[in-house]
Amino acid sequence: MKKTDNATASKQVKKTKERAALPLSNADLEAFRSNCALASALDIIGDKWSLLLVRDLMFGIDTFSKLQSRPETIPSNILASRLKRLQGQGLIEKTPYQERPVRYRYTLTSVGWALKPILLSLTKWGLDNIEGAVAPDFVRDHIEAAQLSAKSDG
């Protein structure tokens, strides 16, 4: 690695440390497999549903019934559990939009929105490597914009 690359990496690490950390309890921290950043991130979002929920919330699908009606057909008990967990881990917030019965609208926090480049990268990988995989045009547009931004930054 060049000296300039080391300096850039060091700046990125400092930027990461300046961001607000997830509001995790000691019990949450003890439940992690290790203190490895990747392993810890996977402990939070590595199940088969969490990133799909984050994806849907990014694109405005924000109520329980809308989330449940997605093509992946998440069972209602798992959806409720994942929403509660993502909220407890600071990735989403819920606000009531109806009183009787109480119904909630879910939105991403800044920590949840920070997953956008990861989701775009995973989607691009899927498009590039899985025959028959599809993504809506607006998602492809986001991927292209992210690639152009990366080229202009580099």
TrEMBL record:
Keywords: DNA-binding, Transcription, Transcription regulation. InterPro entries: HTH_HxlR, WH-like_DNA-bd_sf, WH_DNA-bd_sf. Residues 36-134 form the HTH hxlR-type domain. The keyword Transcription regulation applies. SUPFAM superfamilies: Winged helix' DNA-binding domain (SSF46785). One of its GO terms (molecular function) is DNA binding. The keyword Ribonucleoprotein does not apply. PANTHER family: TRANSCRIPTIONAL REGULATOR, MARR FAMILY, TRANSCRIPTIONAL REGULATORY PROTEIN. This is Putative HTH-type transcriptional regulator.
